[in-house]
Every structure is written in C-alpha cells, then in structure tokens.
Amino acid sequence: MECHVSQQAGAFTLQASLLLPAECHWLGLFGPSGAGKSTLLRALAGLERTAEVNGQWGEVVLPDARQSVLVSAQTPLFPAISVAQNLHLVASHNQQSAAQTDWAIDNCECRQLLSKMPGALSGGELQRVKLARALLANPTLLLLDESFSAMDSALKQRIQWRLRYEWSGSARVIMVSHDINDMIRCCQQVALISAGSVVSQGDIATILGGQHALAQPDKPGEQTLPLASVLKGPFYAQGDAGIQFKVGQTIVNSSDAAVRDNTNQIAMLVPASQVVLSQGDETSLSLPNCLTGRVTAIESINDLQHKVSLLCADQQLIAAVDTVILAQMGLHSGDTVHAHFASRFSL
Ligand SMILES: Nc1ncnc2c1ncn2[C@@H]1O[C@H](COP(=O)(O)OP(=O)(O)OP(=O)(O)O)[C@@H](O)[C@H]1O
C-alpha cells in the first residue's frame, strides 16, 4: 500500500510517495526544517484544499478528513473553557466511556491540569492536553507534528510508551520529530523527507546506515541525519550509570536515553563518528563498551573518511574511520576488529 501526495504551497512543491505497509502502524517522518513534513501531514489529514492525495493504509483511505486527527502547534484548544471542559467536550462527542476518558487524562498526565484554562498552560502541558484530546477523538489516523517537543525526556518517554504499547485505540500513527530517539522508540518505518520528496524509507537502522546519513556532525542550525547504528538486545540490568543489555554474549552499557520496548528489548543509537576501532588488546581503550566483530564492508564516504561496517554477533555496527588511520590499520573485509564506544552520546 502506498500514498502519493502533491501540493504547491507558494514557491514550495511537495511531491511525496510514502510506502504504507498494512503491518506498519507507526510511521515516522524525519527531515530538515522546511523539508515539507508539516505540509505532508496537513495534506494527509485533508486540511490542504489544493493538495492531491491518493492512497490507502490498511483500512484508512487517504486523505482522511473525517477520522484523522492532527496534533500540532497550530491546532488550538477552545481558549474560553477549561482543560476539563475541552477534554469532556471531545469525549462526549465521540461517545468515549468514563474509563476511556480517564485513561487518556491519566496517561497523558493531564489530571493536575483539568481546572486550568488553556492560556495558563506551559508548552509541554499544552502538548499533553492536545494529545489527550486527540485520543478522545478516537481517530483512525493520528498525525503527530512535533507533539512531544516541549516535554522533558522522561515525560516524553513515559507518554510515548503508553501510546505505543498500552493505548487501546486502533489508529495508525504518523509522527514528525527531529529527535531520532523518538523514531527508534515508536516507529516501525521511517521516511526521510528532503525538499518536498521522500528520499528514503525503511526501518530506522536502514535509514541511519544509508547514503543520506552523514558521518560529520551537524552544521550549527542545520539538522542532518547522523551516520549511525541501532544496537538492540535483551535487557540485562539497571545500574547507577544506566541500562545494560546484551549483544550476543557481550554486555553493553547504555545511558537512560536507550529505548526499551514492551518485550524488554533495549535499543541504543551509536553514531558512527563515535566508534573507535582497534585490532590489538581490546581493553586498551578507556571507553566503557567493546564489541568484537568482523568487517563486512569498507566504503569511501569522502576524501577524509571511510564507512566500516562490522557484524558483531548478528548486528551491524558502523564506524566512520579516518582514511589515514584506516590505511595504517591495513583493514580489509573479513578482518576481526574491536569496536569501542561510549555509553552516552550527545547528538
Ligand atoms: N501556505 C504556504 N504558503 C507558502 N509557503 C508555504 C506554505 N506552507 C508551507 N510553505 C512552505 O513550504 C515549505 C515546507 O514547510 P513545512 O512546514 O511543511 O516544513 P517542515 O518540514 O514541517 O519544517 P519544520 O521542521 O521547520 O517544521 C517551507 O519552505 C514553507 O515556507
């Protein structure tokens, strides 16, 4: 299943084709500012009168103006009534039971906000109320446009977990976020948007290891996709320094930014620029993690760097290695190396 969207908004042209497999329920849209993500969501919601949208996702025929709900900075609450009245209005209109209403209020952490007026809410509080209201509308398609951006990390993780794994609603979800960990936490598929087109789509590990991911850190003010791997494995232990999980027989130490799913699998984002390779004594570096793997591919990124792909246990780990260092190491496909990396990264 797929969807084609075209829209002219001033000088901006959106020509996007999304793959929408029936088995995928959460799709992420990632891309730089101005790429067209919000325009695409609005078109899918049937809110762009001049957009041409044709597609289907499972049982949802697109565009879906009737049963889709868009949550964005531009979707206001009713300003003259309280949070409780805003929520109960939508709940009663959509025949939500008291239990469903309580679930949305409690799980979007709005209980303490009910008596407040919308104008008195902070940015993160407003996002929580908008999310609760969206759930109470019982959507078939939920479109989240940076709907967690003002929440602190712990709050965001709690609410995303509940929406992803505990919410009984049957909506398919498309989520726009600039935070890659949101994509890892929630999305089965991610579409990378650039200049109004979908340039790549797949699971997040494929996108982060693909040709559009850059080994160099972001230029200031410009969001780029880092060349990175997503290591996954079963939860092992919770320590003072964070979570431990296992990749094969090796214990990996990760900060609390690691993502845990409902089967107790941990996922950890490892930027390729932060992986240090060694061939000798694996304890010679002071970094807390060391995985041993076999080199599966070496590709040139640019004049200065190469992408070295490793297979560690059954997982791909990518390192961006300085070309001079690579030559000194004399590394070839099939060689065994040690990959060292930290437990916490700032992206
Ligand atoms: N109604 C409009 N008239 C003219 N230009 C528009 C209109 N709506 C959007 N655009 C332009 O379309 C482009 C894409 O905007 P859009 O908001 O979809 O980007 P985005 O990827 O969501 O960006 P961000 O991450 O910054 O929110 C921008 O250059 C924007 O200025």
Q: How would you briefly describe this protein structure?
A:
Keywords: ATP-binding, Nucleotide-binding, Transport. With 347 residues, the protein is of the alpha+beta class.
Describe this structure in words.
- The protein is built from 8 helices and 20 strands.
- Helix 2 packs parallel to helix 4.
- The mean pLDDT is 90.
- Helix content is 22%, strand content 36%.
- A 6-stranded mixed beta sheet has the order 6-7-8-3-9-10, with helices on both faces. Strands 13-12-11-15-14 form a 5-stranded antiparallel beta sheet.
- The longest helix is centred in the middle third of the chain and has 14 residues.
- The chain has 2 domains: 201 residues, Rossmann fold (3-Layer(aba) Sandwich), CATH 3.40.50; 114 residues, Beta Barrel (OB fold (Dihydrolipoamide Acetyltransferase, E2P)).
- Bound molecules: adenosine-5'-triphosphate.
- The site of adenosine-5'-triphosphate (ATP) has 11 residues, from helix 1.
Kindly name the structural category. Answer: alpha+beta
Strand order of the largest sheet: 6-7-8-3-9-10
Named at the architecture level, the CATH assignment of the largest domain is: 3-Layer(aba) Sandwich
| Termini separation | 34 Å
Overall mean confidence score, pLDDT: 90
Low-confidence parts, pLDDT < 50 over ≥5 residues? none
By CATH, the topology of the largest domain is Rossmann fold
Protein name: ATP-binding cassette domain-containing protein
Keywords: ATP-binding, Nucleotide-binding, Transport
Organism: Alteromonas gilva
Pfam families: ABC_tran (PF00005)
